[in-house]
Every structure is written in structure tokens, then in C-alpha cells.
């Protein structure tokens, strides 16, 4: 007997565990995090890192010597020859061929290049940092979209719960009482039918709200890559505190990095104006030897040394390029100022809506107290036959509407607090 009881208890625990795990609770923070982690934009950072490493490796190759292999063959209409034919007959001056060829290796190594390679590396690093910050801006926009869907689904979820618990169950309980009174002949069938009509109307309203909730949950699950789980998901109200006055939007850092990128471009342009010093070497084989025409049968030759290169005059091209960069800086600064004004305008608008909602919530609480008293009176009249079922359900609907308004306004206030924090970049 005890064994049967233990098996029964074990089965009950398993069933309860299944019921508990059937619904998956997704918090607001979890939804935002999952949406970003599973979005393709999250992979872009790894791609940018790989791109930077590859580009830096390429720039490091520029620090190595430049080695090139060249060759040529040609026919010359004239070659060096003695004017006096007697000199040629003495074979002191060789007969230089008019068909000549040579091949050689040319090696160049930059001893000083005006730090161009270092400037290019800095520019690539700044470009990478800018791309990463632009990626953060994209993530910020994803959070905004997901938050709107989450709060919409949460609003419908709470409306569904209020309709289910506050209206339908109450009508069901009242319907049982009225049906019992009808069986005893205390009330007319029309009273029961009227209550049933109101019950079906409440069910229709519930179905409408549930459909809207399901649509919002499906949209949310697309972002979370949980398309097959939307029926088992429950949302929770987030806890969002008051935001400070400081602005930490990722766009501001993006503008700063854009300015830094223009500065690195200016540094690179200035470095291109500096003189360059190279060590060089040339070695090859030619017929005749280009360094000694008397070696007409072919010979090896080489040359090593240091060369200097500088372009002091470029007709103002470099200067114009730097002026273009300065104009780009001005454009970035104006975009930054415009962004600040947009943020200030958004904050002012949202704070105005926040004050309005706080007043509405205070009024909602007072309305609910009055409607609760009205419902108690309507139920008493219905029980005593002094009121119709329609009057009772009307009072019940008014109370439910007041609770729905309170729930909706509370969620809107919560969403506005979130929006304020998001506008300021504090989340």
C-alpha cells in the first residue's frame, strides 16, 4: 500500500513539474539580450575584428623591403663606338652590340617615410573603433524595437488576465446564483438570458484581446528566434528606476569617433608631405653590362645606396584635401548639435506625457474605489430583484474598464520611464 502511495506522489510531482515548466517566463532584460545576441548585427563585431587584423597584417607587410624583378631586351640604332676607325682595329674598344638585354632585381627599403605606415595603422584602428560604435548604435535601435513589442504584448497579457479573472469569472459565479434562483422561481428566465448575453460579450472581448496578445508574442518570438514557443511564453513587468539627467547615447560616441577619424586622416595627409629616405639595391645580369660597356659578352652587376625623395610642390593638392577634411569636421559637429537638440525635444515631450499619466493613475485609483462601491450596490439590488442583470453587468464592466485603464496607464508610465532612460542612453 505504501509503495502505491509513493508511486502516486511521484506521478503527482511529475505532473506538477510539467505544469510549472509549461510556461516560460521571459523578463524584459532577457528579451533585449536574446534579441541582440541572436541578431546578425551581433556577428558583425567579430567580422570587423577579423577585418582589422587582416588589414594590419597587410600594413605590416609594407614595412618589409619592396622587391621587384624586371628585365628588358631591345635594339639600339646607335651604340657607343670610336670615331677613329683605327681605334677599333686595335681592339682596344670592343664592338658593342646593338641588340642588348638585361634582367635585374630591384630592392627598396624605406628608412624614413614620414611615419606614413604608422599613420595608416592608426587610421585603420580608428576606422575599426568607429565601425564597432556604429554597431552599438544598431544594437540600440534593436532594443527600442523589441521594447515596443514587449510592452505591447505585456499590456494585452494584463488585459487578458483582468478580463478572465475580473469579468468572466465574476459573471460565471453570478450566473450560477441566478440560475439557482430561476430554478426556484425567484427570477424570470429573461434575467438569466440577459446575463448569458453579457457573458458571451465578455468572451468576445477576451478573444479579441487574446488575438492581439498572440500577435505581439509571435512578433517578439521572431526577434528571439523562439517562433515555436510563443504559446508558452509569459511576460513580466520590468523594474525601471528613475533616470538621471546625463546623456550617454551611443550616437554621441560615434560622432566623437568620426571626428577622431578625420584627425587621423589629416595626420596622414601631413605625413605624405614629408621627405622620404630609402635604402636601395640593384643587381642583375646584362649584355652588355650596363655599368661597363666594355663587358659585351654579358656580366653581373650591382648597385647599392641611399636615395632621397620629396615633392615640395604639388600645386596645393594636399592642402585642398586637408581643407575637405576640415569641412567634414564641421558637418559632423553640426550633426552632433542637431542630435542634441533632437534628444532635448524628445525628453521634453516624454516628460510631459509622464506628468499626464501620473495624474491619470491617481484618478484611476479613485474611480476604481467608487466603481467597487457601485458594483456592491448593484449586486445587492440584483439579489433582491431590484435591478436587472444588465444593470449589474454594466456596473461590473465599468469597474473592469477602470482597472484596465489603471493597468494600461501603469504600463504606459513604465514604458515612458524606460523611454526616458533609453533616450538618455542609460540602459
Describe the structure.
By secondary structure, the protein is α+β, with helices and mostly antiparallel strands. It has a single domain, classed as Outer membrane efflux proteins (OEP) (Up-down Bundle). The protein contains nine helices and six strands, in the order αβααβαβααβαββαα. The protein has helices spanning 2-22, 28-37, 41-61, 85-89, 116-183, 189-224, 250-272, 317-383, 389-423, and strands at 24-26, 66-75, 99-112, 233-235, 276-287, 299-309. The strands form two sheets. Strands 2-3-5-6 form a four-stranded antiparallel β-sheet, with no helix packed on it. It has a two-stranded parallel ribbon with strand order 1-4. The longest helix is centred in the middle third of the chain and has 68 residues, at 116-183. It starts with a helix and ends with a helix. The relative contact order is 0.12. Residues 1-21 have low confidence and may be disordered.
Major sheet characteristics: 4 strands, antiparallel
Secondary structural class: alpha+beta
**What is the number of independent domains?**
1
Q: Give the % helix.
A: 55-70%
- Cα-atom Rg, whole angstroms? 42 Å
Average pLDDT confidence is 86
- Shape designation: rod-shaped
Could you state the oligomeric state of the chains shown?
single chain
What is the level 1 CATH name? Mainly Alpha
Q: So how many helices?
A: 9
Distance between the termini: 59 Å
Strand content: 5-15%
Number of strands: 6
Question: For the record, what is the CATH homologous superfamily label?
Answer: Outer membrane efflux proteins (OEP)
| Uncertain regions spanning at least 5 consecutive residues | 1-21
CATH architecture descriptor text:
Up-down Bundle
Q: How are helices and strands ordered from N to C?
A: HEHHEHEHHEHEEHH
CATH fold field value: Outer membrane efflux proteins (OEP)
Amino acid at each position: 500500500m505504501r509503495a502505491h502511495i509513493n508511486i502516486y506522489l511521484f506521478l503527482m510531482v511529475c505532473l506538477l513539474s510539467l505544469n510549472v515548466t509549461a510556461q516560460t517566463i521571459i523578463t524584459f532584460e532577457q528579451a533585449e539580450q536574446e534579441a541582440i545576441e541572436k541578431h546578425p548585427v551581433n556577428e558583425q563585431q567579430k567580422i570587423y575584428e577579423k577585418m582589422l587584423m587582416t588589414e594590419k597584417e597587410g600594413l605590416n607587410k609594407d614595412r618589409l623591403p619592396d622587391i621587384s624583378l624586371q628585365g628588358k631586351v631591345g635594339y639600339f640604332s646607335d651604340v657607343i663606338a670610336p670615331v677613329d676607325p683605327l681605334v677599333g682595329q686595335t681592339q682596344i674598344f670592343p664592338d658593342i652590340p646593338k641588340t642588348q638585354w638585361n634582367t635585374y632585381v630591384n630592392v627598396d627599403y624605406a628608412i624614413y617615410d614620414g611615419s606614413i605606415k604608422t599613420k595608416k595603422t592608426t587610421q585603420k584602428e580608428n576606422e575599426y573603433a568607429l565601425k564597432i560604435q556604429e554597431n552599438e548604435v544598431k544594437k540600440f535601435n534593436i532594443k527600442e524595437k523589441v521594447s515596443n513589442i514587449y510592452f505591447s504584448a505585456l499590456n494585452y497579457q494584463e488585459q487578458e488576465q483582468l478580463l478572465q479573472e475580473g469579468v468572466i469569472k465574476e459573471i460565471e459565479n453570478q450566473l450560477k446564483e441566478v440560475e439557482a434562483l430561476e430554478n426556484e422561481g425567484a427570477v424570470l428566465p429573461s434575467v438569466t438570458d440577459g446575463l448569458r448575453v453579457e457573458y458571451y460579450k465578455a468572451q468576445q472581448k477576451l478573444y479579441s484581446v487574446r488575438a492581439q496578445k498572440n500577435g505581439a508574442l509571435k512578433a517578439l518570438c521572431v526577434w528571439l528566434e523562439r517562433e515555436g514557443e510563443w504559446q508558452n511564453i509569459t511576460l513580466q513587468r520590468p523594474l525601471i528606476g528613475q533616470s538621471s539627467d546625463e546623456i550617454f547615447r551611443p550616437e554621441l560616441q560615434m560622432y566623437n569617433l568620426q571626428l577622431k577619424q578625420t584627425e587621423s586622416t589629416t595626420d596622414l595627409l601631413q605625413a605624405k608631405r614629408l621627405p622620404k629616405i630609402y635604402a636601395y639595391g640593384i643587381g642583375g645580369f646584362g649584355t652588355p653590362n650596363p655599368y661597363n660597356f666594355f663587358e659585351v659578352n654579358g656580366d653581373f652587376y650591382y648597385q647599392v645606396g641611399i636615395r632621397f625623395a620629396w615633392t615640395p610642390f604639388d600645386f596645393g593638392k594636399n592642402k585642398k584635401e586637408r581643407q575637405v577634411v576640415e569641412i567634414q569636421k564641421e558637418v559632423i559637429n553640426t550633426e552632433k548639435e542637431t542630435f542634441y537638440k533632437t534628444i532635448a525635444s524628445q525628453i521634453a515631450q516624454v516628460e510631459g506625457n509622464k506628468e499626464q499619466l501620473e495624474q491619470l493613475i491617481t484618478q484611476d485609483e479613485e474611480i476604481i474605489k467608487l466603481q467597487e462601491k457601485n458594483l456592491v450596490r448593484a449586486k445587492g439590488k440584483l439579489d433582491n430583484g431590484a435591478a436587472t442583470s444588465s444593470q449589474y453587468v454594466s456596473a461590473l464592466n465599468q469597474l473592469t474598464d477602470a482597472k484596465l485603464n489603471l493597468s494600461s496607464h501603469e504600463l504606459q508610465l513604465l514604458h515612458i520611464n524606460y523611454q526616458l532612460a533609453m533616450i538618455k542612453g542609460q540602459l
